[in-house]
Amino acid sequence: xxxxxxxxxxxxxxxxxxxxxxxxxxxxxxxxxxxxxxxxxxxxxxxxxxxxxxxxxxxxxxxxxxxxxxxxxxxxxxxxxxxxxxxxxxxxxxxxxxxxxxxxxxxxxxxxxxxxxxxxxxxxxxxxxxxxxxxxxxxxxxxxxxxxxxxxxxxxxxxxxxxxxxxxxxxxxxxxxxxxxxxxxxxxxxxxxxxxxxxxxxxxxxxxxxxxxxxxxxxxxxxxxxxxxxxxxxxxxxxxxxxxxxxxxxxxxxxxxxxxxxxxxxxxxxxxxxxxxxxxxxxxxxxxxxxxxxxxxxxxxxxxxxxxxxxxxxxxxxxxxxxxxxxxxxxxxxxxxxxxxxxxxxxxxxxxxxxxxxxxxxxxxxxxxxxxxxxxxxxxxxxxxxxxxxxxxxxxxxxxxxxxxxxxxxxxxxxxxxxxxxxxxxxxxxxxxxxxxxxxxxxxxxxxxxxxxxxxxxxxxxxxxxxxxxxxxxxxxxxxxxxxxxxxxxxxxxxxxxxxxxxxxxxxxxxxxxxxxxxxxxxxxxxxxxxxxxxxxxxxxxxxxxxxxxxxxxxxxxxxxxxxxxxxxxxxxxxxxxxxxxxxxxxxxxxxxxxxxxx
Length: 599
Known about the structure:
By secondary structure, this protein is mostly beta strands. The protein folds into three domains: 3-100, SH3 type barrels, CATH 2.30.30; 120-334, no CATH class; 454-595, Alpha-Beta Complex (Phosphatidylethanolamine-binding Protein). The protein is built from five helices and 32 strands. The chain has helices at residues 3-24, 80-100, 119-129, 251-254, 574-580; strands at residues 37-41, 48-57, 60-65, 70-74, 133-137, 141-146, 177-180, 185-191, 200-204, 209-211, 233-235, 241-243, 261-263, 268-270, 288-291, 295-299, 310-313, 317-318, 321-322, 341-349, 353-360, 363-371, 377-382, 388-393, 454-456, 481-484, 492-500, 505-514, 520-521, 530-531, 552-561, 585-595. Strands 10-9-13-14-16-15 form a six-stranded mixed β-sheet, covered by helices on one side. Strands 20-21-22-23-24 form a five-stranded antiparallel β-sheet, with no helix packed on it. It starts with a helix and ends with a strand.
């Protein structure tokens, strides 16, 4: 009998043998939750085959897939980790055979059914043990249920998207997150620079979704714009918390040798280094590469795209998002950002009562909210004088378009068991009247905007950073600025360059009473309009000279005014200017940029 026929015969015996071994272990289950299933990964593409190890010989390994079929894989094409695992299993089987088979037997079975957790489950298991998530799988997908509420403080440090708050989300049952068990290399990979501006592109190990770092306008980097907290997350329009950059802090729990997330195409996302601590080299445009040990995988980086910058694997895009994916469950309409505000505190009690502390100039305000047993949410908006405005909202399931540009899609699949703190789903959709347009803002005239009022500057690069020529690291020149689209009735234009520091709002440049016949300021322009005082109490441009490490976000705001501004010379600082234009602002637009002090 030739070797191949002997091998095929042994496989048939192996199927019976492994079945007997499986049945001999009390509580062992087959199917989607079978612990003997693992992922065998091809080193060149990163594609997976999920199944149980059956036998290995002559350079091949036999794998019984979750649907019961048996496939033969060339061991040499698998990752180094798989090769080592197979070698170890073969050694274990050899030891079992030598200890259990008669010494005169001419047949030696090369089989094993040693329980082995699927590779993707190893990433989510630490948080399943913490009861932060639940997971399951079928023959095609790995499902993760969560309420998207991480075990760390949220929203602190945000300066440009401050009015949403974290509320538990119903990502469970048919609305669970799903990840392909066997990713397929895409014939036409899609970039996140031009696609997927809505919804999630990955799922973190703690069950928190990760969105495209570029927001739904297709150009704004959420990190550089000051929209993210100290953990790289914020809340969408549905009060749904999610990350926009790689959550590398999760390595403290999952370990530096494990993925911190999985992209929705099924490929894992690792931290800033390889699992063995070595430097990451040769990343493609999607922040991924293939290695002999892991096959294809993505990596976190400290600059754009921060995590997977698109999809190496196949995904379906519908209306700008990966489809399908869960829906968020909001309770109230989204509120616009509050100019000059920064979130400086977040507290939670028993995961039911929450408080956000917001600094607006020198005033401290609070958003306190309570999750009621019936699923409604009671909000108390506390202004700087301690006055409280209360609103209560009942749950409503947000359909397609939820998240205000950070959209959710269709269902995931599975059972109907909610994770901790998930809001009830049996409440009828109803909502109390919405709060004022800006719940944190006083009863003053709201800033107005115009879609045609556009501000730009050649001093700011495509990466959102300002040239050093216009800072104290360079020539300290004021930047060139161009605008267009001032609304009808505009009598003068004004420019303000400002920045929100931890304890105050700083002003670097103020130019007002610019004639409507002017549509730009040249570099180092000192003659157009009236130049107001900066925070050094001097008339003119004060170049940014950032203190402390790391990049900081600054703002240039352009105002269209219905009259000229009248302020006493020598008292025309930013505070006086804002007070003077409160009732005469027809439109305003802001251009954000980033500056990091040269080392």
